[in-house]
Specification:
Chain lengths: 73, 522
């Protein structure tokens, strides 16, 4: 799985973009999106997903259940 | 030549940006000497002080900074550029989701800018508003949580407009990491928001901080925050960078504790302390807004500011402005300078024209100081009598606003020692609730209910009668004259009437500090 950003909640504060260890976050259509192909849920980088930890609005960076769980190599 | 770099190196005697810490602490200590008497008869100092009250190098830094000098805020304008949206902590009085174009309070912004757009905007504003002397980065997040954007903006602006003073406002968590960079860009004013020095208190204000790639909560989070804030403040002082401390007064949580905060920041060399009322309303969606946490009344705020003033310079003229505000404090011209409009503007930076304008302002300021000095004689009759007056003004230290047009009133305390600016009251209308004309007058009376008189350039018959009924004397005979000199003439007349028994001096009640959103920013 990967994380995704709930667009209606995102304040466009940019804080997550700089913190993502996989540069999976980018701005698109006036909000920020996570590329599921790049997101590793921060496994192997940090104890907690960085986007979740920094996001000023709770429940905005959430697990995307439509994507298979990330498997560390 | 007003080049900031040159001024700075002249002041510090070197070009490396560092000053002798012992020297600067000594100067600050000497400077504070004028604000420490406890008999209420001390000299006007710090935020309301003039050149005679502080060492020349500190006066040079503050004299045209509207946020650091109460004197300057009548004449000089500032602008904030919203290049730094990310934040590294969460505060219970802040909600980043709320976005109303007419909202006016810290953390709120209509659009964010790239450093290039910000630089163009600064040039456009500086060319249109010659009294714009200060560029600040105050979020809407934390400038030091966006260091690349913040320092790139400073770099671009210092290249094209070197006479503009640079400042930033931070929560302090990342400050120790960036103090040397701040010094490098000749940023000589830094504001730190410090609401507590005890994590027991802090955990009720800050739900979390982002620290070393983790979200920390509770006591642990507040402990790290306060340690970083104190370290950052000490490092600024060591480098001769003026620090202003902002504190949000939250009744029942940190109101009494702010006296301790005041002592802690004073001992670490802070130049100015600005205690602001909590802005809290349910429609803001903040934790405090939703849980019913109230802000302080006007009297509670003033009592705390007065209590801390014995120890340190207090700022009373803060307008708690937006992170993209433009203009004099108390006005906001940001709507004239949206990104679309700026990108179309042909901008030519006229540094000579700006200099000429600023020299004219200096002459006007000196005339005002002279007018005030003549009026201090004969005040000894006041004895223990102290009272507040409200003034309708558009700036420049003159009574020049119509009562019905005033969006705010400046409050002066009159006593045996003269006229002292002690704050301002917003009376603009609310976003919600649909207040009509008659309610507007009630709003004004509620906001200045602790005043004996209101000085205006002009006032209609109806509001005049209503004010009198509420026990507030409308005074319009000093239209377009200097505020302080006029207030003292009126005060002496008031004292004479009290002495002759014509009137009796009665204490007034409390007043409310306006909460909620602006109906119109225009």
């Amino acid at each position: 799985m990967s994380y995704k950003i709930v667009a209606s909640q995102c304040t466009n504060c940019t804080a997550c973009e700089a913190l993502c260890p996989n540069t999976a976050i980018s701005e698109a259509k006036g909000t920020f999106v996570i590329d599921p192909a790049l997101c590793t849920e921060c496994i192997g980088h940090f104890d907690t997903p960085q986007c979740v930890a920094i996001c000023p609005v709770d429940d905005t960076c959430v697990i995307d259940p439509s994507v298979p769980r990330y498997q560390p190599a | 030549m007003t080049d900031l770099g040159q001024e700075y190196s002249e002041m510090t005697g070197d070009t490396g940006g560092a000053v002798d810490i012992g020297d600067i602490m000594q100067k600050m200590a000497e400077h504070k000497g004028c604000g420490t008497s406890s008999d209420g008869g001390k000299a006007s100092c710090g935020s309301s002080g003039g050149p005679e009250d502080m060492p020349p190098e500190i006066w040079e830094k503050v004299k045209n900074h509207p946020c650091y000098s109460e004197e300057a805020h009548h004449h000089y304008a500032r602008m904030h550029v919203a290049v730094a949206p990310a934040c590294n902590i969460q505060c219970n009085y802040c909600n980043r989701k709320y976005d109303c174009a007419n909202e006016s309070r810290p953390g709120v912004v209509s659009e964010r800018l790239t450093p290039e757009q910000a630089s163009k905007k600064v040039l456009a504003v500086a060319s249109t508003i010659p009294q714009m002397t200060v560029l600040g980065i105050a979020g809407p997040g934390d400038p030091l949580a966006n260091p690349q954007k913040t320092f790139e903006t400073f770099r671009l602006i210092s290249e094209v407009a070197p006479d503009i003073k640079l400042c930033l406002s931070t929560n302090g968590l990342a400050l120790p990491d960036w103090v040397d960079e701040i010094a490098k860009y000749k940023v000589d004013h830094v504001t730190i928001t410090i609401n507590m020095v005890d994590p027991e208190v802090g955990q009720h204000i800050y739900p979390w901080i982002f620290w070393e790639n983790k979200r920390l909560t509770g006591y642990e989070a507040a402990k790290i925050l306060t340690e970083r804030q104190m370290l950052g403040l000490e490092m600024l002082t060591e480098r001769g960078i003026l620090a202003k401390i902002n504190s949000v007064m939250i009744p029942g949580i940190n109101d009494k504790h702010l006296v301790e905060v005041n002592k802690a920041v004073k001992s670490r060399g802070a130049f100015l302390h600005n205690i602001m009322p909590l802005i809290s309303a349910p429609e803001h969606g903040t934790v405090f807004g939703l849980n019913g946490q109230r802000g302080p009344s006007a009297q509670e705020l003033k009592a705390l500011q007065d209590e801390c003033e014995g120890d340190m310079n207090m700022m009373r003229h803060c307008r708690q402005c937006r992170a993209d505000a433009v203009g004099l404090l108390g006005e906001d011209r940001s709507a004239e300078f949206t990104t679309d409009k700026i990108m179309e503007m042909e901008v030519e930076y006229d540094s000579e024209g700006r200099k000429a304008y600023q020299q004219a302002v200096e002459a006007e300021r000196q005339a005002k100081v002279a007018a005030k000095a003549d009026e201090l004689d004969g005040l000894e009759k006041a004895g223990d009598i102290k009272l507040l007056i409200a003034v309708a003004t558009k700036g420049h230290g003159i009574i020049n606003e119509h009562f019905g047009h005033a969006k705010e009133f400046q409050i002066y305390e009159l006593s045996g020692t003269g006229a002292k600016f002690v704050g301002h009251r917003r009376v603009d209308l609310y976003c919600q609730g649909g207040y009509g004309e008659e309610d507007a007058l009630d709003t004004v009376i509620t906001a200045i209910n602790d005043c004996h008189a209101v000085f205006v350039a002009k006032i209609g018959g109806c509001p005049k009668a209503d004010l009198q009924a509420a026990g507030i004397e409308p005074v319009d005979q000093y239209a377009h004259e200097y505020i302080e000199a006029s207030a003292l003439v009126w005060f002496k007349d008031y004292l004479a009437k009290v002495e002759s028994g014509e009137i009796e001096h009665i204490e007034r009640g409390d007043a409310a500090i306006r909460q909620g959103a602006l109906l119109s920013a225009g």
